[in-house]
Amino acid sequence: MKKQAREIQYFLFSQYFSDGLRITLGVLLPSLIFVQFGRLELGLILSLGALCVSITDSPGPVVHKRNAMLLCNATIFLVALITGFVRLNPYLLGAEIMLFCFGFSMLMVYGPRAAALGTAGLVVMILTMDNALKPLEVLGYSALITAGGVWYMLMSLFFFQILPYRQAQQTLGECIHEVARFLRYKAEFYRAYTNLDEDYRKIVAQQIVVSEKQDAVREVLFKSRQYIKASTTPGRILLLTFVDLVDLYEQIMATHYDYAALREKFGKTGVLSEIARLILQIADQLDDIAFAFESNIRLRLPSNLNPQMEQLKLHIDKVGEDEKETSNLALKKILVNLRNLTHRLHDMQQYFNATPSDLEKKTGPLEYSRFVSQQEYDLKLIRNNLNFNSAIFKHSVRVALVCLFGYIVTKIAPYGHHSYWVLLTIIVILKPAFSLTKQRNYERIIGTIAGSAIGILILVFFPNRTVQFLFLLFCMVGTYSFQRRNYVVSVIFMTPFVLILFNFLGDGNLNIAQERIIDTLIGAAIAFSASYFLFPSWESEQLKKFLREMLTANVNYLQKLSDILAGKKVKIEDYKLARKNVYVHSANLSAAFQRMMSEPKRKQIKSKEVHKFVVLNHILSSFIATAASGLLNRPAQVYPPEYVKPVKRSCAMLTETAKKMDASVITNQPSKPADDSELTTTMPADFDEHLLKSQLDFIQKVSADIRKISDSILS
């Protein structure tokens, strides 16, 4: 019960809920104001403009939000103006639908925010084409829509002005929360009764979520001057916490072993269950940090984990004494990793109470701009994608043809007054990949049917207008709060909200619910059929690209390890950048594999082999992190050839494998030996040579396994 209460608190303080409140206020307020003057129709037009601009109000740097909303206002004005006149001729309107659907869909080449701008343009076009406007009314209508968009933009920017750190706090809090969930999944590997294959599926799926959240934090922190400069105490706390969080995540990744062997050797001792309990305690404290950021409160006094750590050490030592024939070296290494985790955790907790001078000293000189991708806005991106080798081009052509077909269907069979829902359903459901369209199709249908039933119950059993308005308000907040978190829940809220709205407009008979369901089913059927038969994009066709990128990232990550072993001083930002690229490409590959598994069976090419490739690369990157994190902070020295050769061989095998997939893997040139006067070939006294050698040999073995499974995929 306590866990469920905490999850509710997380949601109420989350960015999702605050976005839902902000969008609801921005969309609803114009209508509420103008209804007081008996001009509800004007308020609804303003609300439509606010709704369209809110589509581009996605998380990110404030300057990017501002620019996107400015462009969106200009776009919706022009689209409303053109559509208002073109709609008078059905043939011209059909041509506009094809042209705008293609052009706005092609904006996807410029990233998610530009794609949102295209969606806003299409929404305005669809909602204007059925609006019975006289020619003299078109300019005023377009100006009102734009005024609503400007109102929303100013309101949104005002909120970010008075709460400049709120978005970053919430984004970082969500990221920490997902890392804590990842750590809980990691604890399952130390429980004797869990299925290891299922544990790997969970950990790989959660890795996708963590990667997305880390990218979101990088977008907010590393593309905003106020955080990069870190000139304020809140900015420094956010920046330092995220840097430590990524390092902590690496430590989690580094705690990877042969869990089947661990269970066989130590399952009866109880030490693995103790390790799992300690990992869960660390995850709980991470969740406390996440909640402190999201709720903007001081962190409660954390419990000291040192007694549990000492108790675990004694237990591990006892296992070594009782089981003399079995080495407890792996358990000791796990203990070291757990100490590193608690060290990072302690640092993150201390930032809440640190003085500004201490925070300033801790702020490092990392080149943060290298850790975020820079989106180019060049017409050559459009030109380069104007061919059927581009998934975005195929998608754009598909959207244009399907929307034209949907428009023709609504004209031939005008069974209702709201047939534009067919086109709205199509543009919402139709995605570049079949798997995404299939998922969105299912969510839209289920959400619409369930939401219609709820809406009918509200209209029948709660005829009071005040009560209905409260339901409307609740459903609006739910719609906009869940639109990025859980689409099916968002649609369940959206459908009663639309039905209640039509009821207020005097069109509230129950046939509206039936009509909405029919329109949704028609639009869903058209979109799903088009994604299957019309220029389909299958994940299996794109999979080689993700495999290549994964191999390339691991080769570059291995090269950093090779440089360390060769005695070259590796810059910390270079190492972290290589590490980040591995995690990003691993998440991309895992996501592509999951999408492929939702496609028809005949399109699931070598699914078992690809799954094994995903798991092996996860294991490989974990062992690279294990070895590199243990060496990175040591003085530079040249290690003997038997330590370097396994890494060099691994690089060679993975490079050869990537070339077989028609990729040229670019790696750093081998390091030149450092000055002998500065280096030593003597191994440190406290260094476990056997452990390092076994880790490097295992890296070579996993690389060989990846080469074999890659050959099997290519065959």
TrEMBL record:
Start and end residues of each Integral membrane bound transporter domain: 415-528
Highest taxon, organism lineage: Bacteria
Alphabetical list of Pfam families matching this protein: FUSC-like (PF12805), FUSC_2 (PF13515)
Membrane topology term: Multi-pass membrane protein
Name listed for the protein in its UniProt record: FUSC family membrane protein
Localisation: Membrane
Key words, A-Z: Membrane, Transmembrane, Transmembrane helix
Ranges where the Integral membrane protein YccS N-terminal domain occurs: 69-342
Entry keyword Cell membrane: no
Organism: Adhaeribacter terreus
Residue spans crossing the bilayer: 12-34, 68-86, 115-133, 139-160, 419-437, 444-461, 487-505, 517-535
Chief location: membrane
